[in-house]
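Q: Make up one entry.
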Amino acid sequence: MSTDSPRTGEEWSRAELLARILTESRRHYADYSLLNQAMADHVGLHPTDMQCVALLAMEPGPVSTGGIARLTGLTSGSATRLVDRMVKAGIVQRHADPNDRRRSLVSLAPEARERIGAAWDTPGRAFGAALENYSDSELAVIADYLHRAAEVGRAQAERLASGDTG
């Protein structure tokens, strides 16, 4: 079955549609990994740092180093080294936690947020253009799928990290 066919959804069997979605999801993940690497190279960051920046940009406020470990799937020691490296590079800032003096919180440095945000302008417009011809109800389905797929991805990453092979 070719996934490049111009057939509409009504011309595909359910099994073909499901297979196509799984194939395209894997392709999307691989292509996103390439984009993340290219964007990291473009702004002068390591790909893991770039992923952390993207995750921090979506958070409503500063995040603890433990929170960064959970967001990125890194160990607490690796997350601490990541934050140390990013502080030294001026990408993130540490702030005292107002609720716990023993803990610090991390947020994107304003200059880094602006510089990296500007680097995303062109890709953001391109991704927006890819969605222009979808109806609002189709966009709602796409958003729902992406949300559910992200939840499945996080759960599967946790399962694999725990050593569960079943």
Notes: The helical segments are 14-43, 47-58, 65-72, 76-88, 110-119, 121-131, 136-161. The chain is about 65% helix and 10% strand.
